[in-house]
């Protein structure tokens, strides 16, 4: 199966996938405007329209000779899904973009003079080609990606914090209504991930894995189908998980192996996080005069 980037072209830290080098989940640009899709209720159809509207770019991976990457790169195959993760806490280059397998193994980097193309802190792409320099030379690879396309992703929330995915549904009061109106206006009424016209404010979370703090960083407009993908781990075993998994696969144009590798990585991170006691930081709400739900305020 072609990756989303390649499909779009046909149609017309040591950071990680789930936590940046400093222990924070990659953040996206909530008000980065996608090309405006036609009025279309389907999140998938809107997403595919956006993909056809954005340029497909090719990059050569660098840094492939370090660590165990020379044993990993030869196992890659054309059109295999990969992730691009901004390493904001990289001590050598805060703009560094790491290229990783979907189960979160380091493959290399985007060249420093090309990282400006990446407007998302996390996005997905595909292997374009893999090869070796002569019989004994280094293995290398190229990637295909739309670096401004936001990711459709499942969040690695610790089980104890999973219910907070629906935090916005529990907020009340005039201050919250003002915040919600501002989020809707900033997003143009469309999903920030797919461009779909049916969208509602959804939380943006930052994980501080070192301090075990889940921090609210704001809200953005998200289609209901995308929210289900975000909360996919909590849906597993239920009928709704089938639709969310299908959207995850189709929106990213992944193979079934890509989906399996990605979800295995998400589950592993969520399980590790679930072994610790996490604290919720809702200061973002208080700064805007919004009272957090009483049950989430520690005594």
**Which architecture of the largest domain per CATH?**
2-Layer Sandwich
E-strand count = 9
Order of helices and strands: HHEHEEEEEHEEHHHHEH
Low-confidence stretches: 1-14, 20-31
What is the CATH first-level class name of the largest domain?
A: Alpha Beta
Structural class of the secondary structure composition? Answer: alpha+beta
Kindly state the mean pLDDT as a whole number?
Answer: 88
Strand content: 15-25%
What share of residues is helical? 25-40%
Number of helices: 9
Number of folding domains? 2
Distance between the amino and carboxyl termini: 52 Å
| Gyration radius from CA atoms, angstroms | 19 Å
How would you characterize this protein structure?
The chain has 299 residues and is an alpha+beta fold. It has 2 domains: 142 residues, Alpha-Beta Plaits (2-Layer Sandwich); 138 residues, no CATH class. It contains 9 helices and 9 strands. The strands form 2 sheets. It has a 6-stranded antiparallel barrel. α1 crosses α2 and α5 packs across α7. It is globular. The N terminus is likely disordered.
Any key phrases for this structure?
299 residues; alpha+beta; Alpha-Beta Plaits; six-stranded antiparallel barrel; three-stranded mixed sheet; 9 helices; disordered N terminus
How do the strands and helices of this protein lay out in sequence?
Elements: H1 4-11, H2 43-53, E1 57-62, H3 69-72, E2 81-86, E3 97-101, E4 106-110, E5 122-132, E6 139-145, H4 174-186, E7 200-208, E8 213-222, H5 224-230, H6 232-235, H7 239-252, H8 256-274, E9 279-281, H9 283-287
Parallel strand pairs: 8-9
Antiparallel strand pairs: 1-4, 1-6, 2-3, 2-5, 3-4, 5-6, 7-8
């Amino acid at each position: 199966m072609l990756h989303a980037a390649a499909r779009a072209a046909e149609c017309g830290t040591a950071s990680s996938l789930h936590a940046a080098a400093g222990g924070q989940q990659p953040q996206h640009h909530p008000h980065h405007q996608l090309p405006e899709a036609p009025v279309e209720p389907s999140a998938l159809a809107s997403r595919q329209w956006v993909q056809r509207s954005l340029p497909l770019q090719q990059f050569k991976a660098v840094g492939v000779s370090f660590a165990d990457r020379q044993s990993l790169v030869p196992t890659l195959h054309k059109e295999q899904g990969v992730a691009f993760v901004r390493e904001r806490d990289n001590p050598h280059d805060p703009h560094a973009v790491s290229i990783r397998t979907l189960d979160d193994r380091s493959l290399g980097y985007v060249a420093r003079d090309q990282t400006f193309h990446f407007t998302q802190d996390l996005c997905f792409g595909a292997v374009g080609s893999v090869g070796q320099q002569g019989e004994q030379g280094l293995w290398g690879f190229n990637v295909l990606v739309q670096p401004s396309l936001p990711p459709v992703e499942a969040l690695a929330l610790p089980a104890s914090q999973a219910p907070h995915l629906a935090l916005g549904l529990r907020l009340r009061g005039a201050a919250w209504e003002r915040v919600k109106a501002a989020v809707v206006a900033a997003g143009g009424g469309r999903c920030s991930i797919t461009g779909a016209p049916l969208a509602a404010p959804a939380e943006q979370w930052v994980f501080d894995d070192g301090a075990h703090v889940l921090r609210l960083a704001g809200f953005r407009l998200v289609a209901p189908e995308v929210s289900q993908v975000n909360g996919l781990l909590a849906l597993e075993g239920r009928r709704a998980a089938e639709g969310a998994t299908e959207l995850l696969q189709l929106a990213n144009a992944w193979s079934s192996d890509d989906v399996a590798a990605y979800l295995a990585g998400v589950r592993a991170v969520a399980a590790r996080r679930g072994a610790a006691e996490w604290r919720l930081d809702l200061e973002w709400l208080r700064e805007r005069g919004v009272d957090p739900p009483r049950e989430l305020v520690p005594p």
